[in-house]
Amino acid sequence: MTTNAREEVRRVSVQPFDVSVPRDMLDDLRERLRRTRFPDEVSGAGWDYGANLAYLRELADYWRDGFDWRKQEAELNRFAHFRAEIGGFGVHFVHERGEGPNPLPIVLTHGWPDSFYRFHKIVPMLTDPARYGGDPADSFDVVIPSLPGYGFSDRPTERGMTRARVAGLWGRLMTEVLGHERFAAHGGDVGGDVTQLLALDRPDSLVGIHLTGVPYSNLAAFAGDASDLSAAERDYVERGRRWVQEEGAYAAIQSTKPQTLAYGLNDSPAGLAAWIVEKFRAWSDCDGDVEKRFSKDELLTNLTIYWATQTIHSSARIYYEQAHDPPPANAGSRVGVPTGFAIFPKDIVPAPRDWAERFFDVRRWTEMPSGGHFTAMEEPELLTEDIRAFFRPLR
Predict the structure, then answer these.
(1) Is residue 4 in a domain?
(2) What is the CATH number of the domain that holds 145?
(3) What is the DSSP string of 226-281?
(4) How far apart are CA 196 and CA 334, in angstroms?
């Protein structure tokens, strides 16, 4: 090992961490909710113009007077939390040990606008499958980092925290910090991009990767002749174009002027709730009723993580970095690591298998009967079983 390499290893440190929000911050949150100046809306607007006024009032009232953060905080602290300083950057992560005879290490990566909390339902099913009627041989050691600028990880203070840089941090977390020579990875949304880049960066370290969709960055990276696309692929590209036109305003502003957006969302909890909850409704398999898939407590636990850590602006900046930094040299390269896909019907523009096979060595392709973008929260049993089944022959 070179002197520089030894110095880098010495710069990695790990400390146990507890989720703990100060009382005065919670008091301030309730006061801000009490003083919210709600806008009006067009009669009969529903959710057509954006977040529905009646529902936002109801949710804000519950957040102020009914939501028990301390109860949710205690539930979060049932997991083992840590923070690692990797090259001077602080990364928060959950690390839950598997209960089986030879647990496979797996890193799970969330996206926006969720957090490490996305995976809270599947952690026990992955670590202790026997408890849920599964085979103990399918157990995992589960690692769930918070993306930089999200949750209890550091907020980047310099330009350039791209998804490729995040993949580099995850590689160091799994190998240098936790000591795994070989491990598995799963991700969706931004986490899908990170997982793909991790597999491109460290193919010899990954036994396989599992995704809930083909990362959307592959559309931008596609350098082939459009006439070579299959009918299913052409339909996918057209559906993607329409979705961006109709639903992509959030990504446009987060990719161009996230700081301007931040002043309102970092100051107003009701504004933060509107920005995030509207996406949970639009991107899930809920038939227009967001609480068909997520309880108020679940929505507000995720929201309170954003509010308490003041990370709505830093989380949005990952879109800006993606749009303004040159793509990594391996962008668009085919991943040689075995890849499994769990495709949920109400996710954002699900891709066909022939599109996935342009970029991945597809070993498993499962089209689910229900579920949307927030798969680990919406359909935890379906997702868990697919992860187990995919990695079973790769252990």
Answers:
(1) no
(2) 3.40.50.1820
(3) GGGS-HHHHHHHHHHHHHHHHHTHHHHHHHH-HHHHHHHHHH-HHHHHHHHHHHHH
(4) 9
Q: Average per-residue pLDDT in the chain?
A: 95
Integer angstrom CA distances of residue 359 from 170, 223, 336:
21, 12, 9
Catalytic residue among 319, 320, 347, 386: 319
The reply to whether 373 belongs to the active site is: yes
On whether residue 354 sits in a domain, the answer given is yes
pLDDT band at 7 (very low <50, low <70, confident <90, very high): very low
- Is residue 107 assigned to a domain? yes
| CB contact at 8 A, 144 and 115 | no
Query: Which of 1-10, 94-103, 174-183, 338-347 bottoms out in mean pLDDT, i.e. has the lowest?
Result: 1-10
- 320 has catalytic annotation: no
Q: Indicate if 189 belongs to the active site.
A: yes
Q: Which domain holds residue 58?
A: 11-35+52-394
Q: Which listed residue (114, 128, 141, 189) is catalytic?
A: 189
Count CA atoms closer than 13 A to 172's CA, side-chain side.
21
Position 11 confidence tier, pLDDT thresholds 50, 70, 90: low
Cα 202 to Cα 185: distance, rounded to the nearest angstrom = 11
328: enclosing H helix or E strand: none
Handedness of CA 360, 362, 363, 369 (dihedral sign): positive
Query: Which candidate in 92, 180, 186, 373 is catalytic?
Result: 373
Interior angle at CA 385, CA 170 and CA 370, nearest 5: 100
* Domain presence at residue 212: yes
Tally the domains of the chain: 1
- Report the DSSP pairing between strands 81-86 and 89-96: antiparallel
* 121: exposed, middle or buried (Cβ count in 10 Å: 0-12, 13-18, 19+): middle
What stretches of 35-149 show up as alpha helix (H) in DSSP?
53-65, 69-76, 123-127
Q: How many residues does the chain have?
A: 395
**pLDDT for the residue numbered 332:** 79
Contact 341/362 with Cβ under 8 angstroms? yes
The Cα 268–Cα 263 span in angstroms is 9
Burial classification of residue 389, based on how many CB atoms lie within 10 Å of its CB (0-12 exposed, 13-18 middle, 19 or more buried): middle
pLDDT tens column, 104-144: 999 999 999 999 999 999 999 999 999 999 999 999 999 99
Query: For 30-34, what is the mean pLDDT?
Result: 98
Helices (H), strands (E): how many in the chain? 17, 9
